[in-house]
Amino acid sequence: MRMKGNRQRLPLGSAVRRILWGTAGLLAVSGNAQAVTTQSFQVSATVAAGCSVTTGTGGVMGSLNFGTHTGVESTRVSTSFVPSSSLLLACTPGVALSMSINGGQNYGSSVRNMVRGGGTERVPYRLYTSSSLNAASEIGVNQAVSIAYSNSNNISLPLFGAAQLTGFSPAGSYTDTLTVTLSW
């Protein structure tokens, strides 16, 4: 059977055989053409030096509590900083950490003071970085003090206090509030 323009019509079975052979040839070629390549890529991260301070509800870091004394005592009493149970201070290992402490709400006459609630009477106190309470370890107002640590995930503030009872203090609760600034 003749078609226009030199084309011949082939029986349907012949066309199907040609398609099948063509597909088989492609499969054979593609099977041999598979190539396995191995490449690498980089994975990286940068850890910045820093610290994390968690104080819990109210932002209270802890307290210096000199205890209860009679109004006629005239002596120097001392205590150490007790961190709040929620205080967590951690730094990247090797970070140089320092703290400074302001003069409090009642600073005067070159010393920090606790003031009696509802009154104006004062009990002077000083802060130190060592339990020895020697003059070399005294923390001045806003003085940067280095904090040494061995466990970067659990850093303690080296903070001790000494109050001078005058022997003439009226009964009452004497308080002050300090602000600690941590720097790294």
How are the secondary structure elements laid out?
Elements: H1 12-32, E1 51-54, E2 62-63, E3 76-80, E4 82-83, E5 88-91, E6 97-101, E7 112-116, E8 122-128, E9 145-147, E10 160-164, E11 174-175, E12 180-183
Antiparallel strand pairs: 1-5, 2-4, 3-10, 6-9, 6-12, 7-8, 7-11, 8-10
The largest pleated sheet is described as:
5 strands, antiparallel
Q: How far apart lie the N and C ends?
A: 95 Å
CATH class group: Mainly Beta
Total number of distinct structural domains: 1
**CATH homologous superfamily title:** Fimbrial-type adhesion domain
The topology string of helices and strands comes to HEEEEEEEEEEEE
Structural class: alpha+beta
The averaged pLDDT comes out at: 87
Can you tell me the residue ranges where pLDDT is under 50 for at least 5 consecutive residues?
none
Question: What share of residues are in beta strands?
Answer: 25-35%
Shape: elongated
As a whole number of angstroms, the C-alpha radius of gyration is 40 Å
Q: Indicate the CATH topology.
A: Immunoglobulin-like
The counted number of beta strands is: 12
Q: DSSP helix count?
A: 1
What percent of the residues sit in helical stretches (DSSP H or I)?
A: 10-25%
Q: Which strand order do you get reading across the main beta sheet? A: 3-10-8-7-11
CATH architecture assignment name: Sandwich
